[in-house]
Each structure stands twice: as structure tokens, then as C-alpha cells.
Amino acid sequence: MSFLANIFARRQQSSSVAKDRLQILLAHERSSGGESGESDLIRQLHKEIMEVIARHVAVDQDKVQIKVDRGSGCSMLEIDVEVPQELSGKRTS
Amino acid sequence: MSKVLVVTSGKGGVGKTTSTAALGAALAQSGQNVVVVDFDVGLRNLDLVMGAERRVVFDLINVVQGDARLSQALIRDKRCETLSILPASQTRDKDALTSEGVARVMDELREKFDWVICDSPAGIERGAQLAMYHADMAVIVTNPEVSSVRDSDRIIGLLDSKTKKAEQGEKVDKHLLLTRYDPARAARKEMLSVEDVLEILSIPLLGIVPESEDVLKSSNVGAPVTLAAPTSLPARAYFEAARRLSGEKLEVSVPVEKRGFLDWLFKRDA
């Protein structure tokens, strides 16, 4: 139904298209883009965490994933580092 | 307790200067001491909109750099004696403003006035950040149009991170002023509605200023719309917005002109 509604609505209701486009765009920009304080913080965290890890292990930059989920109550910072296989043995010695 | 208010938007041409002049005048007309400060260095226009362009001798930069005293640069409005303007410089560039100098001038203004209203330049660069840095409150001027809403969202992010309040772990009190609104087009779903913009930006609504020829007519003659056409729809919207800024709880309504039957018959869409 919503598919049909969209087809018929598109011609008259350009405002709802505008609203949808904005909501998608801003959801993306708020979490990743721009010069907002939060993204500055994330960039800084990313850099410093990488420096600490690099001091001990050689890690490929591409194998690190950092994600932030902004919730209403709190935000989650998720850091996923892929460590090379041979290291798990070496570390214990 | 004096308040520093920044009028900002990110995007240019949405009505920052018009709104600064109109809100400043409306607050001053209610008897409060108001100064409007133009931060748009190099592209000053607040003096022109306020009709004070031929009375500018010293400007914000002269005061910031210590070349003039604040009292020498302030221009008192001829129509409303509780309203003053501190103009920006037209010739110097924005790097002439130092953060320390601006801080000193803002402190001095706080002592003299109930309201210090800063007209921000467009953009998100240094000039805009200096204008918002000392603010207790912010009016975000937004048009019901995609690029303006997007830029307002960006500015809200900056207000939450690059202001003195934010650095102290507090929040700037943010208000949305929707300008150039056309209720008829919004009703036909050709324009983002008030509800749409509020849902996207999620900050409280200060007022809805309708698109109106009275705004241009007022700036043509160099007067805030609240002084030049006090009974017009935009002026009424600004008066109500000013009362809300002063703390009154007033319902925000979509401004519509009351028309007679014949007007309605012949000028439906006018």
C-alpha cells in the first residue's frame, strides 16, 4: 500500500519527499560527518587507540572498525580490531 | 540578569539580519535595554536594515582592538531609545576580531544592556563561531526548505560543542524561528510544514514568520518590521517571539491574514 501511496503522492507531495530525504541525510551526517564535537572526539579516539595498539602489534588500518551508535540515553562506541593470527602464540612468551 | 542571544542559521539569506533587527526592536519596544551587534565583518548589513548606515563612525573592530571606546561606537536608535546598534566594519577582514577582544567587549555589553543580540555571519567558520561563542541563548533562523534545514542541523551541532556554555558542560538554550513560511503552500504539501521541520530538528519553536512583502518594504526604508509595520503579520510574529524569549508562555500559531469574503473570492492565493 505504501508503495502505491508513494507513486500517487510523489507528484503532489514534494514536501514529504523533502522530509524523507532530510531525515536520511541527517541521520548519516549526525553520526559521521562534519565538524561537530562528537565526530572530532571520534577522530581523536580513533587516532589515539590506534597509536596504543600500534605500539604492541602491527595492525592493518583497514582491519579496524569504529562505530558509534547514538542512543537517547547513552551512546555506544564500538571498536573492532582484527589481530593477525601468529600473534596469539607470541604474546604468551 | 543580562542575556546574550545569537541569531544564526548556517545558510545565508534566510533572514538572520532581518530577524535580529525585528527581535531586537521588539524587545526594546517592551522597555528593555537592547543592543544588536553585527558580527558580519566585511559584509555588514545590520546598520542598513536598521537605518543607521550614515551614523556609523566607529565599529566592533575598533572597539575590539582598543582604538575606540564602546560608548563611541554604539549608535542609539532614533525611534526607540532603549535600542542601540554596534555595527561591524565594512573594510577590515574577519581575522581582525580576536577571541580575547570579543570576550572583553561582550562583558562590557552585558553590564550595560538587558539583551545583547549578536547577528551571526552565514557559514560555520570562525566568524560564525565567534558570534555564537558567548551566547546563553540561540535563535536558529530556518526556512522551510531542505538546504536551510540541513545547515540549521549543522549549526545546532556547533552550538552544542563550540560555545563557552558547551565547554563548561552546559547547554545553549536553542530556539527555532521559522521564517518565510507560506501556510497555503505547506497545506498543499508543496513546502515542509512546521511539524516536519520541528520533527527533524527537535528544538523548541520560538515563532513562525510568514513570507510577507512588509519585510522587504521595511528594509527598503531602513526600519525593523516591528517599528515600520507593527500591525503586519511578520511584526506580530516577532512581537510574540520576543515575549517568548522574555519567558512568557504563549501558544505558537500559524499566522494567517483575516480576509473579507470578497478578498477570499478574488485573491484566494494572493
Account of the protein in words:
Chain B: Residues 5-225 form the CobQ/CobB/MinD/ParA nucleotide binding domain. Chain B: This is Septum site-determining protein MinD. Chain B: InterPro entries: CobQ/CobB/MinD/ParA_Nub-bd_dom, MinD, MinD_FleN, P-loop_NTPase, ParA/MinD_ATPase. Chain B: Interacts with MinC and FtsZ. Chain B: Pfam families: CbiA. Chain A: It comes from Gluconobacter albidus. The complex is a heterodimer of chains A (93) and B (270). Chain A has 93 residues and is α+β, with helices and mostly antiparallel strands. Chain A has a domain at 19-82: Cell division topological specificity factor MinE (Cell Cycle, Chain A), CATH 3.30.1070.10. Helix content of chain A is 58%, strand content 15%. A two-stranded antiparallel ribbon of chain A has the order 1-2. The longest helix of chain A has 20 residues, at 37-56. The termini of chain A are far apart. In chain A, 4% of the residues are buried. The model of chain A has no long low-confidence stretch (mean pLDDT 70). By secondary structure, chain B is an alpha/beta fold. Chain B has a single domain, classed as P-loop containing nucleotide triphosphate hydrolases (Rossmann fold), CATH 3.40.50.300. Chain B has 14 helices and 8 strands. In chain B, α1 crosses α13 (233-245). The longest helix of chain B has 14 residues, at 16-29. The radius of gyration of chain B is 18 Å and the shape is globular. The mean pLDDT of chain B is 92.
